Amino acid sequence: MNERASGSGADREPGVVGSAVYKDGKKIADIAIEDAGVWSKRDGHVVWIGLFEPSRDLLSSVRDQFDLHPLAVEDAEKAHQFPKLEQYGDNLFVVARTAQMRDGRVEFGETHLFVGKGYVVSVRHGASQSYALVRERSEAHVKSLAEGEDFILYAILDFIVDNYFPVLEAINREVEAIEDGVFATTFEDAQIKCLYGLRRDLLRLRNAVVPLVDVCQRLERSDAAPIDPKMRPHFRDVTDHVRRIKEGIDTMREVLAFAFEASLMNAQMQQTAITRRLAAWAAILAVPTAIAGIYGMNFEHMPEIKWQYGYFIVLAAIFAVCGVLYWRFKRHGWL
Q1: Which of 89, 122, 145 finishes a domain?
Q2: How far apart are alpha carbons 112 and 15 in whole angstroms?
Q3: What pTM was computed for the model?
Q4: Is 212 inside any structural domain?
């Protein structure tokens, strides 16, 4: 029976981030994938394997070690899955979406978790932070890690959910900037594109977060998943975090919707004000235009033309009428 420990990280197979076996919360050794199945069958031992965008051959090797369900392995290979929890006998298959800020935009990835008696396998795809930090924290808490595969599942899910908060805070800063300037000026094309980009990111983030509520709730219930009752409060805590994130997303989506509507109303008000100004000036200019048009018709019998002061009287009438119109429009806020 070949039970060798794997070498340093440089010797690991491409796609393998970590592969170790634990007993009573303490790490025994790094192991090779080919030996993982043997170690997982030992009483009190837990194998924790972390993969990043593994090849088909590597996934097949892991599947053979733990007798993973072919449908679950196929989902993990395609990496375009909706967050979910599936149960195959006493084994669990969990899909979660990950999120990370890159260059001011949200990028999404996926994590697939295979959990069974004596093993946990995580498969990462796309944008997500490495779970090496989760492994380090867990190894530092021997008593918690002694809970086995249930604690490892909780630790990874909690890490995924906690990484939503920085993304949410980054989006919230942009939302607040838009909200502060919504009445200062009308939105330019670049601002409108930014607003729609934020709403799209929030919608995608919501689609990633909301299904995790159901996943964590099922992990809480004894009739839904084979989870140690002592670990159920931990999953309840993750559920609370997910709900907080969902509420934050919904709030920001409402703020963005209000900002866009307020910007449209502001633009309409500005257009109305411009229309009023144009109408007021058109009415004022209509007076001299009409009078000039009348006296420009060159009729022979026009008594006013014969008056000595007719020219001055007409000009005075024009200025008087225009002045009254200007005063009235100014008083009503049209000018």
Answers
A1: 145
A2: 14
A3: 0.75
A4: no
Task: Answer whether residue 174 is part of any domain.
Answer: no
Q: Which domain holds residue 94?
A: 1-145
- The CATH number for 324's domain is 1.20.58
Which residues, at least 6 apart from 155, have a Cβ–Cβ distance to it below 8 Å? 134, 137, 138
> What is the count of structural domains for the chain?
2
Sequential pLDDT tens for the chain (335 residues): 344 444 444 455 678 888 999 999 899 999 999 999 999 899 989 999 999 999 889 999 999 999 999 999 988 888 788 889 998 888 899 999 999 888 778 889 999 999 999 999 999 998 778 888 999 999 998 998 988 899 999 999 999 999 999 999 988 888 887 777 665 565 666 777 777 888 888 888 999 898 998 888 888 876 656 778 888 888 889 999 999 999 999 988 888 887 777 777 777 777 777 888 888 888 888 888 887 887 777 666 666 666 777 777 778 888 888 888 888 888 888 87
Distance in angstroms (rounded) separating the CA atoms of residues 20 and 4: 12
What are the tokens at 144?
């918690």
**Last residue in a domain, options 112, 127, 145:** 145
Residue-wise DSSP of 192-234 = HHHHHHHHHHHHHHHHHHHHHHHHHHHHHSTTTS---GGGHHH
User: Six-digit token pair at 157?
Assistant: 């899910």
Any idea what the CATH number is for the domain that residue 61 is in? 3.30.460.20
Cα-based angle 115, 211, 255 (whole degrees, multiple of 5): 145
